[in-house]
Amino acid sequence: MTALPLNRLSVARSRVVVPPLDWVLVGCAALIMTMGTLLVWSATATNDVLTGGDSTAYLHKHLVNVVIGLVLAAVVMATDHRWVRIVTPLVYAGSVIGLLLVLVMGTTINGSRSWLMIGGLSIQPAEFAKLAVVIGMAMIVAERTENSRQRRVGLVDVALMGAVAGLPAVLIMAQPDLGTMLVLTATVFGVLAVAGVPRRWLVGLLASGVALVTLVVAAGVLKSYQVNRFIAFIYPDLDPRGAGYNTTQARIAIGNGGLFGQGLFDGSQTRSRFVPEQHTDFIFTVAGEELGLVGAGLLIVLFAVLLWRALLIARHAEDMFGRVAAAGIACWFAFQAFQNIGMCLGIMPVTGVPLPLVSYGGSSMFATMMAIGLLVNIGMRGTGTGRPGFGVRPRGR
C-alpha cells in the first residue's frame, strides 16, 4: 500500500471538515430550558398538594425530563437526517399506534383521554404525533419531487399529505384534545405553504377547515367545558368565576409583575395557587409575575431567535426533506408558543397546550428536544449558505 505524499495528505485532510453546531440555536434552547426549570421549581415549591411537602420534588422530576430530552436530542443530532427520512414510516406508525392505544386503554385527565400510564410514567402520544406528522409530510414532498420530473406539489401530493396528517388528527379529536389539534392544524398549514402548494389551494383548505370546525362544534363532538372556554374567550366577563376563571387569574398574575417582577419564588398569585395548572399550561404567568415584563419579554425574544434560526436552517437545507421538516418544526414551535402565551394574556382561548421547553411534562419535553436535535442535524449538513461554519464542506479544486 503506497502512502500519500505529504502535500496530497494535507489536501485530503483539509477537505474533511466536521460540520459545526448552530450554537445560536443550541444556546437559545439551553437558555429557554434553564428559565423553564426555574419557573417550574417556583410554581411548585409551595404547592404541598403536588409535592407532598418536598419543595424540590418537581424540580428533580423536571431535571430528569431535561436530561432524557438532551439524550434524545443528541441521538437524533448524531444520526444523519437522511436516515431519519428512512425510518419516518416507522416513527409515524408508532405514533398512530400510540394514539390508538390511548383510546383503548388511556387515562382521562382534565376531561381528555390523552395519556398512557406505563408503570409510574405517563406518556402523551399526541406530543410525538406532531413530530411524526411533520417528518411524514416532509417525506411525501421529498419523494414526490426528488424522484420524479415534477418540481411542484400537485393535487395528489396534497391528498397524500392530507392523509398523513388526517389520521392522527382524527384520533386526537376523538380524545378530545383541542389544543393539540389546533397546533397540528397550524403546523400542517405551514408545511403545505412551504412545500409550494398554490395559494388558491391554501385558501380553499383554510375555508374547508373553518367549515369543519363549525360542523364539529354543531355536532357536539367537543365537550361542554371546551365550548365554554371559547365562549369565555369571546365574552371574558361573562363568567369570571367559572369558564373565565383561568384567564382572569392569569391576567391578574401577569399584571402583578410590573416591569421587573416580584422576584423568583415571591409571586403572590403563584404562592397562593390562584392560577390552576401553573407549572404546565400556565407556566408563562409565573414568568410574568415573578420576572416582570423584562423577564417575560426576554423569554419571548429567545423564542423569536430560536424560530429565526429554524427558518434559516430551512432556507439553507441541502434537500427537500430537510427544508420542509425544518420549516414544519418552526411552524409547530411558533404556533404552540403563541397559543400558550396568548391564552395567558387573554388573546387566545384556553386550551391544554404546554409552552415548549418550559412547561413541566415529559412527553412534551422529549418530542420538542427530538425536534431540536433534528433542526441541528439539518443545519450541520446544510450547504446553501456558501460559507464554512454553517455545515458547508469546502470542495477541492
Describe what you observe in this structure.
By secondary structure, the chain is mainly alpha-helical. The chain has 15 helices and three strands. The protein has a three-stranded antiparallel beta sheet, covered by helices on one side. A hairpin with a 2-residue loop joins strand 2 and strand 3.
Keywords, separated by commas or semicolons:
397 residues, mainly alpha, 3-stranded antiparallel sheet, 15 helices, globular
H/E element order: HHHHHEEEHHHHHHHHHH
With strands numbered from the N-terminus, the spatial order across the biggest sheet is 1-2-3
Low-confidence stretches: 8-14, 383-397
Give the helix tally. Answer: 15
Q: Helix/strand/pairing class, anyone?
A: mainly alpha
Assess the beta-strand content as a share of residues. Answer: under 5%
Which outline best applies? globular
Outline the biggest β-sheet.
3 strands, antiparallel
Query: Got a strand count?
Result: 3
* Percent helix: 55-70%
Q: What's the mean pLDDT score?
A: 84
Radius of gyration: 23 Å
Amino- and carboxy-terminal Cα gap: 26 Å
